[in-house]
């Protein structure tokens, strides 16, 4: 439902406070609850939409990122598991006099909702990868717990693709697996390694999810497949126009024309020199952001010239 508006689904304004959002959710949950709409096959889908919208808008951090990046950008950063992690509406259902197990009954292992069971997280810290806690909804199932491993990747990895060997704890022992990082993968995306999670009571293992975390890069800012880099120009170059050279992520040197009267913060677009799009479809763009450099020290002659320019209204 990447193209749907969570606010519209709940029928609230974007500036609605948490109490208004909660009241709207209660109303919609009651309206589309499957137990009250047994003759309406579409009620269950609407009920799922309402729960997904509330799972995001009831969480301050998820709501902030949804507002900041929009629907498509948010879904690039949050998987279904991420959306529902920590979300438990059973107390609301109980208050409405409805069965609290409906959430597990509809979503448990099904399409379009959170998986039941638990997730163990691994975080990257100063000492390397460290085990985190268990998270999830719905309690244990015969299937083993899924594991989530946060893997830092560089922009070069995203540009060219990469293969990495990781080590993680599974069942009290250290396991090593090879992970292929596809070119164009975005931060927050998860790669699934089936059957590499914890082994459950019946012997069925969960899965291992590799969550991509983009390592910092001082030269480029990332926005999906697009990159932005800064270019310093002098006042005279910005005023009169100039031609400068910029470096791309893949090592190319490109000439960029700075137009006359260019402004600080203005962006110049170099089409097709950004990151590759996941699964093909070309590359994003490279944007060159102009920064007009003001010298901290001036020679006597420079000061005289600038004072003359000031007298001319510049």
Written account of the structure:
- With 314 residues, this protein is an alpha/beta fold.
- It has three domains: 1-114, DnaJ domain (Helix Hairpins, Orthogonal Bundle), CATH 1.10.287.110; 116-216, Sandwich (HSP40/DNAj peptide-binding domain), CATH 2.60.260; 221-311, Sandwich (HSP40/DNAj peptide-binding domain), CATH 2.60.260.20.
- Helix content is 30%, strand content 29%.
- It has helices at residues 6-10, 18-32, 43-57, 60-77, 80-84, 90-95, 102-107, 155-160, 235-240, 300-311; strands at residues 117-125, 128-137, 146-153, 162-170, 173-181, 190-193, 208-214, 221-223, 226-233, 242-247, 253-258, 267-270, 286-292.
- The strands form four sheets. A five-stranded mixed beta sheet has the order 2-1-3-7-6. Strands 8-9-13-12 form a four-stranded mixed beta sheet.
- A hairpin with a 2-residue loop joins strand 8 and strand 9.
- Helix 2 packs antiparallel against helix 3.
- It starts with 5 loop residues before the first helix and ends with a helix.
- Residues 108-140 have low confidence and may be disordered.
Number of extended strands: 13
CATH class of the largest domain: Mainly Alpha
- Identify the CATH architecture of the largest domain: Orthogonal Bundle
Give the helices and strands as they follow along the chain: HHHHHHHEEEHEEEEEEHEEEEH
Spans with pLDDT under 50 lasting ≥5 residues?
A: 108-140
SS-based class: alpha/beta
State the helical fraction.
Answer: 25-40%
Which term fits the overall shape? extended
